[in-house]
């Protein structure tokens, strides 16, 4: 099933509750929550107190993307604040297998994210343990960046690898997704689509409808 996960990083924070209701009403299935620590990525975004408030504002799946060093320090707290799905970066975990188990022990779904320059081989011994793989289609740290073209091939390779192993794990893409890049990532095998600017800039309901239309045609 294809799923849309609007990234609130691109929302108007003075009207966050309203804008969350708007994407909910327009039919987005997930809500993407980008946590940045100023170390793993250059920017600092938001953390637990904001997640707690967002949890009260929506019943949708909260898809928490941790762009932080040593995320095991905070996984339990993000789980307690209302995350449903917690994604950690392979590059930021010294003990990736252990962090995946930690997320599962909290009763949450676990995702592993790969930066554009990270090989799929980082997933070799954990692929069958994760609920989702996040292929970053920009270098993490900021919204509104340009999609990296080599991502299409990477998604396709991951999809073949999963098929060969008999796995139906979700493939999420994040960064520079819009009406132009969406058809290609769907074709390549992605099914969980993060979109920040393409949802929150302009008319939110119309943007969600357009992206969902494309997703339904594929
Ligand atoms: O994780 C990140 C950026 O690091 C994203 O989730 C962005 O928030 C996506 O924004 P757009 O590229 O869709 O504007
Ligand atoms: Fe993200």
Automatic annotation (TrEMBL):
Listed cofactors: Co(2+); Mn(2+); a divalent metal cation; Zn(2+)
Name of the featured protein: Ribulose-phosphate 3-epimerase
Cofactor note: Binds 1 divalent metal cation per subunit.
Family: Belongs to the ribulose-phosphate 3-epimerase family.
Function in brief: Catalyzes the reversible epimerization of D-ribulose 5-phosphate to D-xylulose 5-phosphate.
Gene: rpe
GO MF assignments: D-ribulose-phosphate 3-epimerase activity
Active site, UniProt feature: 34, 174
Residues annotated as transmembrane: none
Entry keyword set: Carbohydrate metabolism, Isomerase, Metal-binding
Binding-site residues, substrate: 7, 65, 141-144, 174-176, 196-197
CDD domains: RPE (cd00429)
Pfam families in the cross-refs: Ribul_P_3_epim (PF00834)
Pathway linked to the protein: Carbohydrate degradation
Reaction(s) catalysed by this chain's protein: D-ribulose 5-phosphate = D-xylulose 5-phosphate
Assigned EC number: 5.1.3.1
Positions contributing to a divalent metal cation binding: 32, 34, 65, 174
InterPro entries linked to this entry: Aldolase_TIM (IPR013785), Ribul_P_3_epim (IPR026019), Ribul_P_3_epim-like (IPR000056), RibuloseP-bd_barrel (IPR011060)
Keyword flag Phosphoprotein: no
């Amino acid at each position: 099933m294809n799923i849309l996960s609007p990234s609130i990083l691109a929302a108007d924070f003075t009207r966050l509750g309203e804008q969350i209701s708007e994407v909910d009403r327009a039919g987005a299935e997930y809500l993407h929550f980008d946590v940045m620590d100023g170390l793993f990525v250059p920017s600092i975004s938001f953390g637990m107190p904001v997640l707690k408030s967002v949890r009260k504002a929506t019943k949708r799946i909260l898809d928490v993307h941790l762009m932080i060093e040593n995320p095991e320090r905070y996984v339990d707290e993000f789980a307690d604040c209302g995350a449903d799905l917690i994604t950690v970066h392979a590059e930021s975990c010294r003990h990736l297998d252990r962090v995946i188990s930690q997320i599962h022990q909290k009763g949450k779904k676990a995702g592993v994210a790969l930066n554009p320059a990270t090989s799929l081989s980082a997933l070799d011994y954990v692929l069958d343990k994760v609920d989702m793989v996040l292929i970053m289609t920009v270098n993490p740290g900021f919204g509104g960046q340009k999609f990296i073209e080599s991502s299409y091939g990477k998604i396709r390779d991951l999809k073949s690898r999963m098929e060969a192993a008999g796995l139906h794990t979700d493939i999420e893409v994040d960064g520079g997704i819009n009406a132009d890049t969406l058809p290609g990532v769907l074709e390549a095998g992605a099914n969980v689509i993060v979109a920040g600017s393409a949802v929150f800039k302009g008319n939110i309901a119309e943007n969600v409808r357009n992206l969902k239309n494309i997703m339904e045609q594929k």
